[in-house]
Write a structure and sequence with these properties.
With about 400 residues, the protein is α+β, with helices and mostly antiparallel strands. About 35% of the residues lie in helices and about 30% in strands. The chain has three domains: about 240 residues, no CATH class; about 80 residues, 2-Layer Sandwich (Alpha-Beta Plaits), CATH 3.30.70; about 60 residues, Roll (Ubiquitin-like (UB roll)). It has eleven helices and 18 strands.
Length: about 400
């Protein structure tokens, strides 16, 4: 029986960067791993201080991000420059870049303007940069192939922000959580913000699926505390780290399909993106010809059994189909790990796939390639070729 490293995040009481940091430390990630990544990027001293606390009866880990008072607001352009110059491992840098890209894109969507010029206001401060980079380093350290997240509690009421009084969830959080399960929060939760933009950006970037805890053998549990301790509500985020049997019959992946002939073809890219965000392992289209000569497409979606319900719902929400057909599939997956190569001084993450301990495939991460190409002022195809050539050194 093969096993897969698995993490399940219980965000039923909300999520923020510091809660994720605390949960990672509580689950066994050395704080030195997080601090080392933060030290590599912070232009001013930033210290992570760990404290054991209680939140409404829960013993939890609070990770304080201690910095000097600063009102400096940074744009995504500024933050990207810091990330590119930092001495970070390629996978950590790549994950942090994707988190901030998602955050900048959401802010630009709800407030307008170029994502590169978006000023993050509250999330542009050093503590939020430390949150994103520290959490990225923590998840790279865990190396989990599967990261499932519960429906996210967002809160209710209103909050005061840089743009005045805002409804909860704030516009950026609502945009970031578009297409994934969320709700106001548990009974007894205060009428306030439970999920921050940083927390939403981190969860939607690292998640490979959404829903209840998958069948797994839990090795460690981290409980990360938020800053508040309200009555009747445990302000914590829980993280379960362990393994799951990938060849159990109940966990066989499913192939879900539907023939669709009445959907505007321009929306298909958005449909496929939404299904991948909802937890599909893959999704694709096949052109077909239906009865009476009508052109159509077969939508095919590959999904783990424990994520099928969420993906089914998303198919019905995003398309015009009124029925689906399904079949279980056998699956053989190679072991995977992340390494990095250097192209022109730019670090590019590479995914290695191994069969019986022998590396048989090495593929550069395309997002890192495009970032490096932009930084170097070179065509993407050239940087991709150089990265692929450098990756061959890992093949045996």
């Amino acid at each position: 029986m093969t096993t897969t490293d698995t993490v399940w995040i219980d965000a039923s009481s909300g999520a923020s960067g510091d809660m994720l940091l605390g949960a990672l430390v509580g689950a066994g990630v050395p704080v030195e791993v997080l601090q080392g990544a933060v030290d590599a990027i912070a232009p001013e001293p930033v210290r992570l201080r760990v404290e054991r606390v209680q939140r409404n009866g829960f013993a939890a880990t609070r990770c304080h991000v201690e910095i000097a008072d600063s009102a400096h607001h940074r744009s995504w352009r500024d933050v990207r420059s810091l990330l590119e110059a930092a001495d970070l491992a390629g996978p950590v840098r790549g994950l942090a870049v994707r988190v901030f890209e998602r955050l900048a894109g959401a802010e630009a969507t709800v407030h307008g303007g170029d994502p590169l010029d978006v000023h993050f206001h509250e999330v542009g401060a050093l503590d939020a940069i430390a949150d994103v980079v520290g959490v990225s380093a923590g998840f790279v350290h865990l190396g989990a192939a599967e990261i499932a997240v519960s429906p996210v509690a967002v809160g209710s009421g209103t909050i005061a922000g840089a743009h005045g009084t805002l409804p909860v969830p704030p516009p950026a959080v609502a945009e970031l959580l578009r297409g994934v399960p969320s709700y106001a929060g548990p009974a007894g939760a205060p009428a306030t913000e439970l999920c921050t933009p940083t927390g939403a950006a981190l969860l939607t970037t690292i998640a490979t699926g959404w829903g209840p805890q998958p069948p797994m053998t839990t090795a460690s549990i981290g409980v990360g505390a938020g800053g508040r301790d309200p009555e009747g509500h445990a302000n914590v985020l829980r993280m379960f780290v362990g393994t799951t049997a990938s060849d159990r019959p109940s966990q066989a992946p499913l192939l879900i399909e539907s023939n669709i002939d009445d959907l505007d073809p321009r929306v298909w890219p958005a449909v496929i993106a939404a299904l991948l965000r909802a937890g599909a392992s893959d999704a694709w289209l096949t052109p077909i010809l239906m009865k009476k000569g009508r052109p159509a497409h077969t939508l095919s979606v590959l999904v783990a059994a424990d994520r099928a319900a969420v993906v089914r719902t998303e198919i019905f929400r995003q398309t015009s189909t009124i029925g689906l057909r399904e079949q279980p599939l056998g699956k053989h997956a190679l072991d995977r790990e992340m390494v990095s190569v250097d192209v022109g001084g730019e670090t590019i993450a590479v995914k290695l796939a191994s069969l019986d301990g022998v590396v048989v495939n090495a593929q550069p991460e395309y997002d890192d390639v495009t970032r490096a190409a932009a930084a170097l002022g070179r065509p993407v195809v050239d940087v991709l070729a150089d990265a692929a050539a450098a990756s061959r050194s890992f093949l045996r």
